[in-house]
Amino acid sequence: MPIKRIMFYVISYDIVDDKRRMQVAKTLEGFGTRVQYSVFECLLTEDQFDVLIKRLRSLIDPATDSIRSYRLCNACLDEIRLEGRGEVTQDEDVFIL
Q1: Which helix (H) or strand (E) holds 62?
Q2: Helix (H, G, I), strand (E, B) or coil at 19
Q3: Burial level of 39, CB count in 10 A (0-12/13-18/19+)?
Q4: Most-buried pick from 4, 11, 22, 60 (CB within 10 A)?
């Protein structure tokens, strides 16, 4: 069974409707960590990311809402600067025996 590569994604949103905004936030909470009010960091395989984006597309109104996703490479992760409180989401070490 091939090992699926985990990628680091930053996903932000701007949703005008309160109900849709709550649905988008709840969906993202199932996939990542909220780091600011409308910004999430997610550690996902490509398949997981595809599932997430399909769910988010079904929730928004593309005429008024916006979702942005940024995939960061490992070299880019080393360049993340954080000022103030908080920490960058990190992959947990998991061992399956």
Answers
A1: none
A2: helix
A3: middle
A4: 11
Domains annotated on the chain, with CATH: 7-77 (3.30.70.240)
Residue 27: its H or E element = helix 18-29
How would you list the strands of the sheet with 7-14, edge to edge?
33-36, 39-44, 7-14, 66-72
- In this predicted structure, the answer to whether residue 1 has a pLDDT above a threshold of 80 is no
**What crossing angle do the helices spanning 18-29 and 46-59 adopt, rounded to 10°?**
170
Instruction: Please tell me whether residue 39 adopts helix, strand or coil conformation.
Output: strand
Q: Is 6 strand, coil or helix?
A: coil
- Candidates 49, 51, 60; CA nearest to 9 is 49
The C-alpha atoms of residue 22 and residue 36 are separated, in whole angstroms, by 14
pLDDT digit string (tens) for 12-53?
A: 999 999 999 999 999 999 999 999 999 999 999 999 999 999
